[in-house]
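Module 6 notes. Inverse folding takes a fixed backbone as the condition and produces residue identities as the prediction. Think of it as a translation problem where the source language is geometry and the target language is the twenty amino acids. Below is one complete input and output pair. Work through it position by position during the lab.
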């Protein structure tokens, strides 16, 4: 159906917003991780596994919060017919639904990302210690 209605280009609709999303998400996540690490680090400078899990979860939640509108725009671009750009989606949402619509569904996303990113951060740090 996508091929018939939108042609070959339709299969990649929403890909650019996803690519654009990766850069700020990663930057915010790394910055947040380092910031939270400085706040929680003890006098000895070491962090426990629980502290690293907490920092990873908070960093993932922070980057999700900051970049969540890009996820919403991408989903709308792909799911709702007639849109050609993220800017068009964002402008229409702002006009018709207000800024709050940029964060619809944020709560479940934050709950889902916290354990995933926390575990990923701890694993990455442990692997880098072995090198």
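Target side of the pair, the amino acids:
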């Amino acid at each position: 159906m996508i091929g018939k209605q939108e042609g070959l280009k339709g299969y990649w609709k929403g890909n650019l917003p996803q690519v654009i999303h990766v850069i700020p998400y990663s930057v915010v996540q790394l910055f947040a991780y380092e910031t939270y690490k400085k706040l929680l680090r003890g006098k000895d400078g070491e962090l426990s596994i629980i502290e690293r899990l907490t920092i990873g979860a908070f960093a993932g939640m922070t980057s999700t919060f900051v970049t969540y509108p890009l996820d919403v725009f991408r989903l709308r671009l792909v799911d709702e017919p007639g849109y050609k750009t993220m800017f068009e989606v964002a402008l229409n949402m702002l006009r018709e639904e207000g800024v709050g619509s940029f964060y619809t569904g944020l709560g479940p996303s934050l709950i889902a990302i916290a354990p995933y990113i926390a575990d990923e951060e701890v694993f990455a740090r442990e692997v880098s210690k072995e090198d």
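Reference fact for the lab report: Residues 123 and 129 are 10 Å apart (CA to CA).
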